[in-house]
From TrEMBL:
The gene is birA. This is Bifunctional ligase/repressor BirA. Biotin binds at S93, T94, N95, Q117, K189. Its EC number is 6.3.4.15. It comes from the Bacteria.
Length: 328
């Protein structure tokens, strides 16, 4: 993001409906009027409708409808997250782009957003349906100061942040977290989360948490129509994607700082309250066609599912090892 663009846009927003003179902008930003004109044109290229009148200055008429980094940034009240925001018209995968930025030493809290994902990834290599301009497809680059065995908490806190963000923009909705990394509405999937690590023994170099949310879709391909939904379908109205991502980023940072402070029990407790699986009879589909049946007793301190089978044997399962379906 360009710092002059941000400062200029902030000034125009603060004076929306009025004209701000080139002289005032020049004084406030400490740049020449020629520089101001260049950045006004850059904002116009991003989709901002800005009027200009001789001897009156500039006036912001309308902001763009799509995802724009400057718009998102100006609505954030965060310490770390969202200080770097990259928005792309199309990407293969936001997680892949986040890893590239990690190699270039981008900081914790860098947010990568795309209007369309060509090869969105879900857990265990599954694809993620990511049509253009309707959903929220983004990743957050993290450099957490936690032990690698606490890495499951990255998915835990991101699910909490998504749930909280949904409730902020659509108060009538009741999100439920499906262990380990989905968010549901009315029993259907509205969000998937994928966290990936680059770690050495005893240290996480960086992590990437990818979040895909069905926001304003009104229909889905036949193969997922029975299991997928969107915020618009459930709320009955269009959802502001910019506001949604802002709310999620703010919540994500708060939970992230709690995690780094070691408040794991608190975070686990909040997560468990929203899980839809504790006390249920389930079938666990593990690797190589092995299945387990039993009752979900609890979730461990590491986020593992604790299952008691019909013989009384207790087993623990984590997301990377199993797929889960409710027993019919």
């Amino acid at each position: 993001m360009n710092k002059i663009n941000i400062k200029l846009l902030k000034l125009l927003i603060e004076n929306k409906g009025d004209y701000v003179s080139g002289e005032k902008i020049s004084q406030e930003l400490g740049v020449s009027r020629t520089t101001i004109w260049k950045h006004i044109n850059k904002l116009r290229e991003l989709g901002y409708q800005i009027d200009s009148l001789t001897r009156k200055g500039y006036s912001l008429i309308k902001s763009p409808q799509g995802m724009v980094a400057e718009n998102i940034y100006l609505g954030l009240d965060t310490e770390v997250f969202g200080k770097e925001i990259r928005v792309y018209p199309s990407l293969d995968s936001t997680n892949t782009k986040a890893k590239e930025l990690a190699a270039d030493d981008y900081p914790t809290g860098t947010v990568i957003i795309t209007e369309e994902q060509q090869q969105g990834k879900g857990r265990r290599g599954r694809g993620w349906y990511s049509p253009p301009g309707t959903g929220l497809w983004f990743s957050v680059l993290l450099r957490p100061d936690i032990a690698p065995n606490k890495a499951p908490f990255l998915t835990i806190i991101s699910a909490l942040a998504v749930s909280e963000g949904i409730k902020k923009v659509a108060s009538s909705l009741v999100p439920v977290i499906k262990w380990p990394n989905d968010v549901l509405l009315a029993g259907k999937k509205v969000c998937g989360i994928l966290s990936e690590l680059n770690a050495d023994l005893g240290m996480i170099k960086y992590a990437v948490t990818g979040i895909g949310i069905n926001v304003n879709q009104t229909s889905f391909p036949a193969e997922i129509a029975d299991i997928a939904t969107s915020l618009k379908i459930e709320a009955g109205n269009e959802i502001d994607r910019t506001l949604l991502v802002q709310e999620i980023i703010v919540s994500f940072e708060r939970y992230y700082l709690e995690m780094e402070a070691g408040h794991y029990d608190k975070l686990l407790g909040l997560w468990k309250k929203q899980l839809n699986i504790i006390g249920e009879q389930v079938i666990i589909y593990a690797n190589e066609g092995i299945t387990y049946e039993g009752n979900v007793l609890d979730v461990s301190s590491q986020g593992e599912l604790i299952i008691k089978d019909k013989n009384g044997e207790i087993n623990k399962f984590w997301a990377g090892d199993v797929s889960l379906r409710r027993k019919k």
